[in-house]
């Protein structure tokens, strides 16, 4: 780690280094130097990202493109070059590191007010609009089939068949829950293949903690975690934000009675997203509730698959962590099913008010 810090062109000498943030994928550290400069140093997770060089090319091009289109420099991530002019450092163990300027603001794991969540909707909606003319075919598909829910089900079936850590027998109810929704889970993928929904450049990982808010104004400053920026559907971004931020409990809540969809927050986000992304088509709008449900179901499938696979993908803090996460997502899916008519009504109302 120390070698990695010194590989980058930074201001001053490092004085502190601490593990930072609540991401599930990369190893993130905050570095402070004796001049008061602050940086984020990340070790790229190579189990998840097989080609870190292409990953950095994607992120580098997208951040450069965004930087030309925003007025506040804090609104776009800024990478520090290494002393030999690269945007990543490869250490002797084959690990890839990168460094960003620390954006002074804060990230939330749950909205503290309606306005916080509204701000995140504006940030992700704007992000989508800003990238509307970005040449999508120049981006590498850094994780192929990332939001292909049909493919996620195939991976679940393969893991279930291999049952590498003998956990399948203990989770039959959970397996049954997701398998009984497999047909519906493939809806977005089928629509994508049929060309019924426009292909856009999307973020693909729109959790609330991937948006930075300004400390003084609490307005959204910057969208973080651009590793999964790829061609995709707006409904992936909308759906993932709802699944994470409009839920009444966190992803790893053990008391499932606390988990459900907050319809008020669902309305707030829908409004912000529609306002910031006026190019959404009628079909995309109609499918918003389905986007929220499928992304939640997809995460249930992904967490369950990782649990069955011995927790190789997501960072976990205890053996049942992925199972707990899968269960919260299932509970949220079930609650969305109960509130389905309300979700559709809200989308129609907001659409009428904002368009
Ligand atoms: P992961 O892929 O593991 O989620 P992220 O890139 O999202 O990694 O980083 C993890 C956390 O680190 C973010 O949620 C955020 O709190 C913080 N973070 C990342 N980049 C920056 C930055 N440039 N400035 C300030 N905080 C950041
Ligand atoms: C991961 O990197 P992070 O923590 O923002 C994951 C997302 C999941 C999320 C679930 C590259 O997001 O797809 O939705 O965990 N990122 C990747 O919390 O797989
Ligand atoms: Mg993140």
Folded structure, characterized:
With 355 residues, the protein is α+β, with helices and mostly antiparallel strands. Helices cover 44% and strands 11% of the residues. It is built from 13 helices and 9 strands. Strands 1-2-3-5-4 form a 5-stranded antiparallel beta sheet. A hairpin with a 6-residue loop joins strand 7 and strand 8. Helix 3 runs parallel beside helix 9 and helix 11 packs antiparallel against helix 12. The mean pLDDT is 96. The structure holds adenosine-5'-diphosphate (ADP), 2-acetamido-2-deoxy-1-O-phosphono-alpha-D-glucopyranose and magnesium ion. The site of 2-acetamido-2-deoxy-1-O-phosphono-alpha-D-glucopyranose has 13 residues, from loops. The site of magnesium ion has 3 residues, from loops.
Bound molecules: adenosine-5'-diphosphate, 2-acetamido-2-deoxy-1-O-phosphono-alpha-D-glucopyranose, magnesium ion
Give me the count of strands.
9
Distance between the termini: 51 Å
Q: Helical proportion?
A: 40-55%
What fraction of the residues are assigned to beta strands by DSSP? 5-15%
Task: Report the order of strands and helices.
Answer: HEEEHEEHHHHHEEEEHHHHHH
Radius of gyration over C-alpha positions, nearest whole angstrom: 20 Å
Largest sheet: 5 strands, antiparallel
Shape: globular
How many distinct helices? 13
> Which spans of ≥5 residues are poorly predicted at pLDDT below 50?
none
Average pLDDT score = 96
> Strand sequence of the main sheet, in spatial order?
1-2-3-5-4
Which class of secondary structure composition applies to the elements? alpha+beta
